[in-house]
Amino acid sequence: MTRSVEEWVGSTDDAAIPKRVRLRVFARYDGVCQLTHRKIRAGDEWDLDHQTPLRDGGRHAEDNLWPVLREKHRQKTAQEATARAKVDRMRAKHLGIWPQGRGWNRKLRRKMNGRVEVRA
Fold it and tell me: pLDDT tens across 65-117, in order?
C-alpha cells in the first residue's frame, strides 16, 4: 500500500513538528500513550517521542515518532539521560580522558595514619 501523503522528515534534528503530522501520528496509534498504554483523553498533555532516540541514530521523521503522555515522557527522557551520562563517563575513563584535578590535589596522597605525602 502506498501513502497518499508523503512522509514528513525534519530538515534538522530540532525542526518543529507540524500540527498535521502530530495529528497523523496520534491517529496512527489510536490516541494511546505508548509508554503507559492508556488512552490520551481530551485535556491530557502529550508529546511526540522518538522511538529510537536521535542520539542513538534515530531519524527526526514521522515514522520514528509516537504519542506519549508528557509526564511519562519527561521521566523516560531523564532516565535515558542518566544512563547515557554513565556510559559517557565509563567510556571517557576507559579511554584515559577522565577529568583530572577534581577534588583535592592529585600530587598529594593521604596515608591511613592521616599524614600527607607527595606522590612519587
Answer: 999 999 999 999 999 999 999 999 899 988 988 766 555 567 888 889 989 88
- Read out DSSP for 43-89? T--EEEEESS-GGGT--SBGGGEEEEEHHHHHHHHHHHHHHHHHHHH
Dist CA 78 CA 56 (whole Å): 15
Q: How far apart are CA 57 and CA 64, in angstroms?
A: 11
Non-local (6+) Cβ contacts of 61 within 8 A are 7, 8, 9, 10
Cα–Cα distances in Å, from 35 out to 1, 3, 96? 28, 27, 38
Residue 92 and residue 65: Cα distance in Å, rounded?
A: 31
Give the number of other Cβ atoms within 10 Å of residue 74's Cβ.
12
Separation CA 116–CA 27 (nearest Å) = 67
